[in-house]
Design goal:
By secondary structure, the protein is α/β, with parallel strands linked by helices. The protein is built from 7 helices and 13 strands. The protein is globular, with a radius of gyration of 20 Å. Bound molecules: manganese (II) ion.
């Protein structure tokens, strides 16, 4: 199995190092990751400035770009082959509910998925890297369990099998306190905290984006709930943002608009 590893916390983050160490013995692993912390960069691509790829002493390649840039560059030329799997993380903190829209960790995985490569985004639910080695082992276990599906996709044996995008959050717990793996939908958060304003030394007002809001929709069946119960939570994601449920409503509305105009 050939795996491309990326993250959004930067190539020196403990999470990507732990993930690399855990996966290197089960696959051919290449790391292409941002030079700097790119958390909350979502799927952003750098279109108006050139990027450079450099290689660190440990073999990790790093890019002065976003997580999605790294995967994009990796898949469209740098690697010179098509990986069987893109893995992103392990992120420093949760990517649950609305976080997934902003997350650079998810963005990196999604870039792989958009190229037809199955992809997994891994995050720890708390910041600070506690039990990161446990999280990395859990990530490795999951990749091993999914290996048959990855193999089928890699060989295109069944054209009906579509690649998948998984969002995985792992509680910062010792191994024996993690209960197992649960599949759950994304919850929702309250709106973010207020923006923080300060005055610069030159008298200008500076704005700092406030913290993400606390969980709002966190009942049974959500990622917030599963991880709080001590489970590794896995959420299959899709990229289609269409509001399918309300397509008929908008079709009717559009039809009325057309009548008014004519
Ligand atoms: Mn991050």
């Amino acid at each position: 199995m050939k795996i491309l590893i990326c993250n959004d916390d930067g190539y020196q983050a403990p999470g990507i190092v732990a993930l690399y160490e855990a996966l290197k013995n089960i696959a051919d692993v290449a790391v292409v990751a941002p030079e700097q912390n790119n958390s909350a960069k979502s799927n952003a691509l750098t279109l108006h400035s050139p990027m450079y790829v450099q290689t660190a002493a440990n073999g990790f390649r790093y890019v002065n770009g976003t997580p999605a840039d790294c995967v994009h560059i990796g898949l469209t030329g740098l690697l010179g082959y098509r990986p069987d799997l893109v893995v992103s993380g392990i992120n420093n903190g949760a990517n649950m509910g609305d976080d997934t829209i902003y997350s650079g960790t998810v963005g990196a995985a999604m870039e792989g998925y958009l190229f037809g490569v199955p992809a997994i985004a891994f995050s720890q639910t708390e910041k600070g890297w506690a039990h990161i080695d446990v999280a990395a082992q859990r990530a490795r276990d999951l990749v091993l369990q999914l290996a048959p599906s990855i193999e089928v996709l890699a060989h295109g044996a069944l054209p009906t099998v579509a690649p998948w995008l998984l969002n995985v959050n792992i509680p910062n717990l010792p191994n024996d306190q993690i209960k197992g793996v649960k599949v759950a939908r994304l919850g929702r958060r309250h709106a973010a905290e207020r923006v923080i304003t300060q005055t610069s030394p030159r008298g200008e007002t500076m704005y700092w984006i406030g913290s993400a809001g606390p969980a709002k929709d966190d009942g049974d069946g959500t990622d917030f709930h599963a991880t709080k119960q001590g489970f590794v939570c896995m959420t299959p994601l899709q990229v289609d943002l269409t509001d399918h449920e309300r397509l008929p409503y908008w079709a009717q509305t559009a039809a009325r608009l057309t009548q008014i105009q004519s």
